[in-house]
Amino acid sequence: MPREAIVEAPVTSSNLHSESDHPTRWGRRLIFAPILLLAAAFLTYAPALKNGFVWDDQALILRDPLIRSWRLIGAGFQHFLFTDAAACDFYRPLQRLSYTLDYAAFFIAPAGYHFVSVLWHAGAAIALFYFAEEFLARCEISRMRRLAAAFFASLVWLVHPVQSAAVVYISGRADPLAAGFGLLGLFLGLRMLRANRTHKWLFGFGAAFCFLASALSKEIGLIFLLLWLILSLTQRARTASLGAAAILSAVLCAYLGLRLPAEQLAPPSPPPVPLLVRPIITARAVAEYSGLLLWPLHLHMEREVETQPFGFTPASLNAAAWRELQTLLGLVLIAAGIAALCWSRRHPGVFLPLLLAAVSYLPVSGLIRLNATVAEHWLYLPSAFLFLAAAAAFESLGRSVRTSYWSKAAWVALTIWIFVLPLRTFARTFDWKDQRTFLTRTITGGGDSARMLINLGALELSEGHLDAARYALARALEKEPDNPLARLNLAAVEIKQHNFRSARIRLEKIAEPPELRARAQESLAVLENRETGKINLIRLRLAARLGAPNWEIEQRYIKACANLGFSERALSELNTCLTIAPWRAESWLLLSDLLRQIGRPNEAAVALAQAEAADVHLHQRLAAPLASFASRGGRR
């Protein structure tokens, strides 16, 4: 006998989220799913809690003076990231605010920072779940099916290994922050469309706040304004479009009002990419990312899809040939993506997430010049909508495709793939154990860029492994012969090896950028001190005046003045530093020491109080000073 089909009442605009659509059991499921996501996040990323600080964590956490006191939160909104490092275009005050809270709670214990990063990632997955459930409800999908699809998409996105660069890496926290706030904003925006007049204003205000928070977490967060506009236009209601336009205008005004007045040191412009080359890079990036999403086996931080010829050798020709094949594969995948969009036009539950994924991917597709051609963490946001589209497609196909051998095999393969993902993510977390593990595994895995090799050379130099440092830096110069940072670090190796003549030649050739020229002059002063035993104050003063303000160079110059008996000059220089950066605890502490040395104890006490106000853990830092990190290289 044939089975009797069980048919649920279709969801329509008239019964969407009606009272009968929310029984007690249904409400419990909506609460139970986020709990499962939270548990899955901490089970998958558990090893990260034992990891340390790596790469940019040293600049954003260990050396950033603006995260050390709640009194400096306002100043954090007035400066771009990497205050004591290289210039950048990253205006992310909420990322800095999250580190301020972490610093107050955990000081410099990395486990606490990793715990919070995993928590933010879980929160972003939960926001994706609620947005997906609300969105699929508007697509007239029955409640059990939309719950399953929303949970499946959120779970796969949560445990996928490609997200590890944004979760295990503390400096990657901007991605979960931006995605979490943005997805929550989309959820509140959809709720606004079906709310009454009073609640409509509340949901609208909440959505605008979340969109602004997303943009202040990372620049990609601005894309949520466009995504929200797309969702609003699909409602075909004038009030929805007007509300979306009002939210968009308010958020943009607030964001620009905070960003434009903020202090920024303009970074050097990246080398231009010809317009004819950009489509090639875009096609290769699509192929690269598709491989990472489907089979995330070879994961490493530094990736590149540009052709890098090193003469007409068999190795270089073979590498170039593979890149051309990657270009062809990317073109095929782009065509398949366009076809999928066309096919799904009658299925809004699939079409709209695919469209949102494509729109959120465009800024990182290679069409716009960034500081790299591809990066794993750039998939963090687009993959969320892509997995939602896939889940909705499986839900749709599950109702129409008959049970057969091939469909069963597909479900078995999918189940195996889902179980493999968290295992690969669990193993990937160990790659970020410490600075050495991170660098060596990245380089071994294929990310042997000049930037990574310079970081490894700086690490070897800081640990006294001079031959290993020279080897790593020489490899970096083979890839980028004119890299000034590699030259600077190699000169430092030669100074330690008493090869002063060669070091001087290298340092005198460094003229650009200004911040590295300043560090080259500082290194020349160190070299002259090793040669003659004297301190060249003129050269140190020149180094302090070149380029952007650099506290390490300023501090060396001030201490040299004080040690040579020029106390008033040291005080004058230090007061100038405090005028420019009154939020730096180290400056106040050094001022307190200088004032105490020249017999002005009352003023020294006032300066010490200012230092304590600028660093809630000042005495702990003095009792247990931070390890010396010499890696000044790579920046994302």
Description:
The chain is mainly alpha-helical and 636 residues long. It has 28 helices and no strands. The longest helix has 30 residues, at 314-343. The protein is globular, with a radius of gyration of 27 Å. The N and C termini lie far apart (64 Å). Mean pLDDT is 85; it is low at 1-22 and 627-636.
Short recap of the structure:
With 636 residues, the protein is mainly alpha-helical. It has 28 helices and no strands. Helix content is 66%, strand content 0%.
Tally of helical segments = 28
Measured distance between first and last alpha carbons: 64 Å
Radius of gyration: 27 Å
Write the element-wise H/E pattern from the N-terminal end onward.
HHHHHHHHHHHHHHHHHHHHHHHHHHHH
Structural class of the secondary elements? mainly alpha
The CATH class of the domain at 449-548 turns out to be Mainly Alpha
Give the proportion of residues in helices.
Answer: 55-70%
Our estimate of the beta-strand percent is under 5%
Overall pLDDT score: 85
Report low-confidence residues grouped into runs of 5 or more. Answer: 1-22, 627-636
Overall body shape: globular
Tag the structure with descriptive keywords.
636 residues, mainly alpha, Serine Threonine Protein Phosphatase 5, Tetratricopeptide repeat, 28 helices, disordered N terminus, disordered C terminus
SSE layout:
Blueprint: H1 24-44, H2 57-62, H3 73-76, H4 93-106, H5 110-138, H6 143-159, H7 164-167, H8 174-193, H9 197-217, H10 223-233, H11 238-259, H12 278-294, H13 314-343, H14 348-361, H15 380-400, H16 405-428, H17 435-444, H18 450-462, H19 466-479, H20 484-496, H21 500-508, H22 514-532, H23 537-545, H24 551-563, H25 567-580, H26 585-597, H27 601-614, H28 618-623
Helix pairs in contact: 1-5, 1-6, 4-5, 5-6, 5-8, 6-15, 8-9, 8-10, 9-11, 10-11, 10-14, 12-13, 13-14, 14-15, 17-18, 18-19, 18-20, 19-20, 20-21, 20-22, 21-22, 22-23, 23-24, 24-25, 25-26, 26-27
